[in-house]
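Translate structure to sequence.
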């Protein structure tokens, strides 16, 4: 029983070897595993929220009505434009930093 548990733990550790830090040991390993797990859980929550919004979009549109739907469409469009401007701003600023003065 104990030997089987030790073999399974060794298998898991050897599978996760690239995230093990030889200097930090177990605390670094644990923090890296927890951060990977938190990112996975966060991604799953975002994916589930998007799925629910798309699955119940017709019901949500009827509850909001035409004016509410129009407001939501305009707000999401504005957010997408803001994200695009930020991406362009980051790219142009990095490009300008590489140019000689």
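Result:
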């Amino acid at each position: 029983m104990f030997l089987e548990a030790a073999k399974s733990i060794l298998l898991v550790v050897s599978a996760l070897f690239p995230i093990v830090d030889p200097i930090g040991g177990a605390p670094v390993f644990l923090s890296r595993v927890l951060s990977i797990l938190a990112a996975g859980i966060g991604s799953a929550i975002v994916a589930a929220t998007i799925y629910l919004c798309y699955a119940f979009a017709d019901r949500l549109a009827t509850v909001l009505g035409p004016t509410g739907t129009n407001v939501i469409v305009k707000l999401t469009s504005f957010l997408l434009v803001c994200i695009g401007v930020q991406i362009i701003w980051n790219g142009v600023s990095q490009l300008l930093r590489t140019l000689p003065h």
